[in-house]
Amino acid sequence: MPIELPTVRILIVDDDKAICDYMQTLLERDRFEVKTINDPFLVEDELRQGHYHLIILDLMMPNMDGIELLGRIRKIDKDVAVVIFTGYPNLETAVASMKLDAVDYVKKPFNVDEFREVLDRVMRKKGLSRTPEEQLHKVIGESIRSLRKEKELTLKQMSRRTGLSVSLLSQIERAESSASLSSLYKIAAALDVRVQDLFGDY
């Protein structure tokens, strides 16, 4: 049965309307739900009303710079992913944005393929699947973690039982790495379940 992919909501904040329109077209083509704002003073109210997964934030805006706005965003939402866009990159703003937990810092003008890679990285970090394959990895990872916890096994114990590294097992559980069929058999045997039990309701 096909699993419906989650809707990923993106807010673009840039005083340049042309850039907002371009980004919106690009992202909507990739099936993201997008809203744009040209006035940074409207962002806080918008954040309180709408649940966003990602904010793309221009660094240089009149009246309020991106770092100040990012500080305000963090007071409202500590979890939302923020990607900083700037035509004027420098070490000071890069460090300031990372301290406020920006997930990436992208230079304008940007390469579309590189920008898509940034988005993919952000989606994975936030546990948001964008393809059926990613969704399957997530289901398998959650099933393995749940079964392991039920049996009160640590990753170290699982590593001894399977011969797989703790690091790989952890990545499989977090859906950051896809498990080979051979690994899934070893994990199922270690948990004393059938391989198909690792696929949940997929």
What is shown here, in short?
50% of the residues lie in helices and 12% in strands.
Please give a structural write-up:
By secondary structure, this protein is an alpha/beta fold. The chain has two domains: 9-125, Rossmann fold (3-Layer(aba) Sandwich), CATH 3.40.50; 132-199, lambda repressor-like DNA-binding domains (434 Repressor (Amino-terminal Domain)), CATH 1.10.260. The protein has nine helices and five strands. Strands 2-1-3-4-5 form a five-stranded parallel beta sheet, with helices on both faces. Strand 1 (9-13), helix 1 and strand 2 form a beta-alpha-beta unit. Helix 2 runs parallel beside helix 3 (66-76). The protein is elongated. The model has no long low-confidence stretch (mean pLDDT 84).
What is the assigned CATH homologous superfamily of the largest domain? Response regulator
Proportion of helical residues: 40-55%
N- to C-terminal distance: 6 Å
CATH architecture group name of the largest domain: 3-Layer(aba) Sandwich
- What number is the mean pLDDT? 84
Major beta sheet, strand line-up = 2-1-3-4-5
